[in-house]
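Quick one: sequence plus zinc ion SMILES, need structure tokens.
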Amino acid sequence: MGRALFGELARMVAALAEVQELRSFALPYPSIAQRALDRTVMHCLDVGETPPRSLPELWEWCRTRPAGDPLFAVPASLVTPDTTLVHPVGRMPTRSCLEVASHAPDGGAAANARALLDDLEARCATGERYRQCRRFLANHPVVHQRDRFGPGWSKAVWSRVKDLYGPLPESLLVDDVFLRCPSCGLPALSRNGAVPVPGPSATDADIWCEGEECPRDDPLELIREPDQAWILRRSLRMFLALPHRTEEAARDALDRAGIDHEALPGPLSAYRLKDAGPGIVDMQVYDRLQPALLAAHLADSAPFADRTLVVVPASLAGRDGYREAFTDALPALPRARLVLTTPVDLVPDLGRPPERGEG
Ligand SMILES: [Zn+2]
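Reply:
Sure thing.
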């Protein structure tokens, strides 16, 4: 029960982050929030806990009570136990929250990103035009008025993609300044709500960026005149822009090895590799924090090529337990056809048989 509630709260957090400024939880609550609050109250009564009295209190629970909390008791084999749905510093949905919310019949934010790209593709008359637009979105999670006079700006591309952008929400502004992480290019905030001073005083723990995993070697970028900037939809920031660096690195590795590849319809970043067999060999690129949910997503999206290389950032693949959790969560058939790898290991792994795991 707790596990189902965690999933429901993830969908609530993701939905509320889309429809309103997170600081204003006025009555009457949106129906998805009222339902989640009611379910939480019921669950608390069942397990003998004091229930939350309001939506702000429930939101605070989502910020402080992780997946492994006895209230939820989500198995560690499904979601890493320290995962919260709302980020403790950023107070926004965590990446894991969107991944959990996407692990639902409607596919959540990940499916939304795919649907938006499908629409875009339908509007672009040619494949080349679509690829241009997709590349623009991946490289420009935030666009400022002055970018329109910079190099590489295409009026035609912008006119096709601009409806996928919206104004910067007030919850992402600090003293009328928008902060951007120089590493992932996504929104950032500081713990104390002030514009952070670069240098040793700003520690990792004080700064949140939507990528969550970025190094803090360089100061955050400050974008003034935020009313002249637009931000890409959250689902595309997370599931297109964030994995884009990994996708580019993987494709560069293929190019260097002389392996041709062409984009496949369907999954967000999927390619068929030419002459890399025996059999049909595909590559799919992801940047997901939760390996078991990634495995579940892949297991659901059959049919498979004879072999699919699943490329994730090296920083994730090298994390304690990531590979094991991924492999353990796969049923036998996809497990025999999937190889988890990184951009650097991609080409060497082409010659390696799939991991068979225990069973
Ligand atoms: Zn970042």
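The chain has a mean pLDDT of 90. Residues 111-234 form one domain.
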